[in-house]
Each structure stands twice: as C-alpha cells, then as structure tokens.
Amino acid sequence: MRNRLFLSFVLLLVASTVAFSQSKEKKAKIQLDSTQASIGTFPKSNSLKTTVFTFKNVGNDKLVFYGAAPNCGCVTVSYPDKPIKPGKKGKITVTFDGKHKTPAKFSHKINFSCNGSPAYFTLRVNGVMTKN
Questions:
Q1: Which of 74, 103, 120, 121 has minimal CB crowding within 10 Å?
Q2: Which domain holds residue 112?
Q3: Which residues, 6 or more positions from 34, have their beta carbon under 8 angstroms from its beta carbon?
Q4: Tens-binned pLDDT, residue by residue, of the chain (132 aa)
Q5: Distance from C-alpha of 91 to C-alpha of 50, rounded to nearest angstrom
Q6: E strands of the chain, at which residues?
Q7: Closest by alpha carbon to 132, among 95, 100, 103?
Q8: Does residue 90 fall inside a structural domain?
C-alpha cells in the first residue's frame, strides 16, 4: 500500500511538471485583424490596387514568416522579413495588378507559412475590375 501511494505521488509530480513546462513553452502566435479585403470596383485604366492586412504576435516568442504563395501572378505580396517580437504588430501588403487581366469580378488567395500558430493561414483579396 505504501509503495502504491508513493508511486501515485511520483506520477502526479511528473505529470504536473510536464504540464507546467508545456505551458511555458515558447511559441509565436499570429492574430490577424482580418483575413479578407475588398479593393472595390475600379476601371482597368487604374488597375494597380494595394491593400494592407495588419496582425499582432500574441505569443511569447518571435514570429517569423517563411513564405507567401499567391494563387495568381497578378498578385504580389510584401511581408516582414525580420522577426516580429511578442506583443508587436506588423503588416502584410498585397498588391493586385490587373493590367494583363480581363475585366471581371475576382477573388485571389495568398497562402502563408510561419513559425507561429497557426503555422499556415490564407488571406483573400477580392474586387471588380471594369472595362473603364
């Protein structure tokens, strides 16, 4: 009986130590203000449009972006190339260039990867380009 009580105590101590150490694990966490943006309706003669997404690192480690992959060559992306410290904000700039596109309604996705939680996320940009 004594051995079982001692073993139970040791297991409880180990479990609580593991749980405590996991809660103190350093991890970045991205909190996006929005995952979607509309750049409105515009004529093809003025087809270069930019929008900005803002975010905050709400984790306890530096946030690092690994890459971005737009689903169309008409979209370019600029994101921080330096780590974002915990508690700090950052921005992602997305530019749509419809110069070589047919006027129409559009919706484009940009997939991102980073060291934070979530490790992968998607932003979406939509709008309507008219003839003129």
A1: 120
A2: 30-130
A3: 53, 54
A4: 555 444 445 444 455 555 555 556 899 999 999 999 999 999 999 999 999 999 999 999 999 999 999 999 999 999 999 999 999 999 999 999 999 999 999 999 999 999 999 999 999 999 999 998
A5: 13
A6: 30-32, 36-43, 48-57, 65-70, 75-78, 89-97, 105-114, 120-130
A7: 103
A8: yes
